[in-house]
Each structure stands twice: as structure tokens, then as C-alpha cells.
Write a structure and sequence with these properties.
Blueprint: H1 2-16, H2 18-40, H3 46-49, H4 51-56, H5 65-82, H6 87-106, H7 112-127, H8 137-161, E1 166-167, H9 173-184, E2 193-194, H10 197-238, E3 244-247, H11 251-262, E4 267-271, E5 285-287, H12 293-298, E6 306-309, H13 314-327, E7 332-336, H14 343-347, E8 353-355, H15 357-369, H16 376-391
Parallel strand pairs: 3-4, 3-6, 4-5, 6-7, 7-8
Antiparallel strand pairs: 1-2
Length: about 400
């Protein structure tokens, strides 16, 4: 029983391995193009009679080989990319195999074995989807470009072959390319119209390929570029040094951010994902749980000049400072006291600056009413004085009057 379980386990690993699936995909592509190449190689020399004449001499029934041949070429290219665990190669392989299965079934018993092979390969690819995680922009762009080029060749050759079936007649490669591109992009200006059943069916195939592969290529490449841009921005954030980290989304935190930016300071913000819109779109923001060590490490608190816990909740500020102290005990820290009853507890955190806006506001108001001058020096002395008072350990036996 153990031996059977081991065999089944190894069999499952084998059939989910990206390299093995890439080999099966390339075999599928060769299966498609080999008989077509062999049959066409026995025909008249196109170099003597001209390429369009050569195509038309093959007879209409051979037009059905065009989509299979094009898909076979694409499958060989995708098979190579699957060995590198490419996600877009996996996606395109699934789409193309689905199209092939429909084509094989519609063409009858002749292609039954190939349909069964494609169905088996499709099931294996769907089962092993977790193994294809590579989102490289270079790889994605190469696969997308390769697929578009092959589909364009398929569309141009088929359009030239059916040139008399369109109105006006298509008899040159440039017009064929133009018609192919607007069909794949599903634009359809109406200046060239298929007038026969054969031409209409072929145009439908171009539109289907355009929707499934052409459009997907453009969207996928755009998505890969966005992801890479986000990764570049994230790497730059991780390399930031001597910056100010603001943790929180309170009004005070937002005003402090604006003040630091006006002074051309490097500022990074840590806030929850659902409150990201409280800061400008171009702000350097790390989203996540604010008291999480992982989130704070993404904000490079180790290399920060100062970390400010400026939430409206004292408990949240306490958790944030405890996490900061665990990551970087030497970094300068600032926090606020929202409720006077928590002053003693927050004082135990030994923050470099901890102050109550309520108390500071009351002190400034009393000095104004008393006719005393209010300037930045006086406010600085108040901040430092309150901070020192907050960080002094309470005298033995002293009562907590706050």
C-alpha cells in the first residue's frame, strides 16, 4: 500500500512539473505542423509560380490547415516558455488548447486522437497552475510579441488566399495586413467586407484569435508593466534612509506630512489599505497593519531619522512604538497622548517626544491670556519640557493625579 502511494505521489509530481508539461506542449505543436509541412512540401515551387498563386493552388479545403499550423507554431514557442514557469505562457496554452479542442471536434473523427491528447494536456495544465509563477516583463513581452506575429502571419496568408472573396478584392500584403489588424482589434471600419461564406468564417476565426490572444497579450503586458513599476517603487522605498516615518491617519498625522513635504523632507507614511486615499497619490506609502513588524520594516524604520506614532488611539500608538523599539531601538520616536489617563503608561515607552495636544493647547491659551509672547522658541521649550516630564519615572509612593 505504501509503495502504491509513493508511485501515485511521484506520478502526480511528474505530471505537474513545468518542464514535463512544456515538453508535452511542444509535442502537441509538432503534431499539428508536421503533417502540414510534409503535405505542402510536395506541392509546386512557390518561388517559380508566386506565393499567392501557390496558396490558391492548394484548394480551399487546405485553408482549414492554416489555423492549426499557426496554433502549432505558437504552441512550440509557448512550450519553451513553460519550462521557465511563465504565467502568460500557461494562460495562452490553456486558451489555445481550448480552441484546438473545438476545432478538432468540429472536424470529425479524423482528429479524434489529437483532441483527446489536447484535452489531457489541458487538464494537466489546469491542475499544475500554481507552478507557473513567473511574471517577468521581458518574458511576457516576448511571448505576447511572438503570438501576435504568428497570428498576424496566419491572418495575412489567409486573407491573401481568399482575396477574391472580399469586396474590394485583396491582392497585396499591405491591404491583407491592414484587414487582419483591424479584425484582430475588433475595430471593423467596414471598408473591406467578406462577401462569401468562406471569407466570413475565416474573418470570424481572426476575430476569435484577436479577442483571446491579441487583446490578452496587450492587457497582460500592461499589467506586467504596472507590477514592475510597483516593484521598482517598493525597492526605492526600501532603500530610503534618514527619512521621517509617519504612522497613522489622524488629522495631526496629515498636517505633519504636509509640513515636512513643504520643507522638502523625505517622508514615508504607514497606514491601513482602506485609508490610503487620505494622503496624496504621489506620497510614499506603505499599507498594512500599522503595528506589524513586517509593515514597519517595509517603511525602513531601521534607517529612519524619526518615527512618529500619530494615531487617535493611545493603545494603537503604544503597539506601534513597541514594534518600532523591537526593530530599531535607537531610532528617535514621537507619539501623542490622546487621553490624560494614559499619560503614565505612555511614559513607560520612553519615547523621545510624547505630548498632549490638549495640555499644550491649554498652556498656550493661558499664556496668551496672560499677555506673554508666543514664539517658536517658547513652543519648543514647552514640547521638550512636557516630554521630559512625561519620561521621568514617578516618585516612589507618588499618586497619579492625571
Amino acid at each position: 500500500m505504501h509503495f502504491l502511494h509513493t508511485v501515485i505521489h511521484r506520478f502526480t509530481i511528474l505530471f505537474s512539473a513545468p518542464r514535463f508539461l512544456s515538453l508535452l506542449t511542444m509535442i502537441n505543436g509538432l503534431w499539428l505542423i508536421a503533417p502540414i509541412v510534409q503535405a505542402y512540401s510536395r506541392h509546386i515551387d512557390w518561388r517559380t509560380h508566386g506565393f499567392t498563386e501557390w496558396l490558391q493552388s492548394l484548394g480551399f479545403i487546405q485553408l482549414l490547415d492554416l489555423p492549426r499550423f499557426s496554433l502549432g507554431i505558437i504552441l512550440i514557442g509557448l512550450g519553451i516558455s513553460l519550462s521557465f514557469r511563465s504565467r502568460i505562457a500557461w494562460l495562452f496554452s490553456v486558451l489555445i488548447l481550448s480552441l484546438l479542442i473545438l476545432i478538432d471536434i468540429s472536424m470529425g473523427v479524423k482528429y479524434l486522437w489529437h483532441a483527446l491528447y489536447s484535452i489531457t494536456l489541458l487538464v494537466l495544465l489546469l491542475h499544475a497552475w500554481r507552478g507557473f509563477t513567473n511574471h517577468s516583463t521581458t518574458n511576457t513581452s516576448a511571448i505576447a510579441l511572438f503570438s501576435i506575429v504568428v497570428l498576424a502571419a496566419y491572418s495575412v496568408l489567409g486573407t491573401l488566399y481568399l482575396g477574391d472573396h472580399y469586396k474590394p478584392k485583396i491582392d497585396d500584403p499591405f491591404t491583407a495586413l491592414y484587414f487582419s489588424m483591424i479584425s484582430m482589434a475588433t475595430v471593423g471600419y467596414g471598408d473591406i467586407v467578406p462577401v462569401t461564406v468562406e471569407a466570413r468564417m475565416f474573418t470570424i476565426s481572426i476575430v476569435v484569435f484577436g479577442i483571446t490572444i491579441f487583446t490578452t497579450s496587450v492587457v497582460y503586458v500592461a499589467g506586467a508593466l504596472v507590477r514592475d513599476t510597483q516593484e521598482i517603487v517598493q525597492k526605492r522605498l526600501l532603500r530610503m534612509k534618514n527619512h521621517y516615518v509617519i504612522v497613522g491617519t489622524s488629522l495631526l498625522a496629515q498636517y505633519v506630512y504636509q509640513g515636512l513635504k513643504r520643507r522638502k523632507m523625505n517622508v514615508m507614511v504607514v497606514c491601513p489599505e482602506d485609508q490610503r486615499n487620505l494622503y496624496p497619490a504621489d506620497a510614499a506609502v506603505v499599507t498594512g497593519e500599522m503595528s506589524s513588524i513586517t509593515t514597519l520594516e517595509q517603511a525602513s524604520v531601521k534607517d529612519a531619522q524619526c518615527v512618529m506614532a500619530l494615531e487617535d488611539n493611545d493603545a494603537e500608538n503604544t503597539y506601534i512604538l513597541l514594534a518600532v523599539n523591537e526593530i530599531a531601538g535607537n531610532v528617535k520616536t514621537v507619539t501623542i497622548i490622546n487621553e490624560e489617563s494614559n499619560r503614565k503608561k505612555i511614559g513607560l515607552l520612553r519615547a523621545d517626544f510624547s505630548f498632549s495636544l490638549t495640555e499644550l493647547g491649554g498652556e498656550i491659551l493661558m499664556r496668551v491670556l496672560n499677555g506673554e509672547n508666543i514664539d517658536s522658541t517658547m513652543i519648543g521649550e514647552l514640547l521638550i519640557g512636557h516630554t521630559q516630564d512625561n519620561t521621568q519615572p514617578p516618585a516612589k509612593g507618588a499618586a497619579d493625579v492625571s
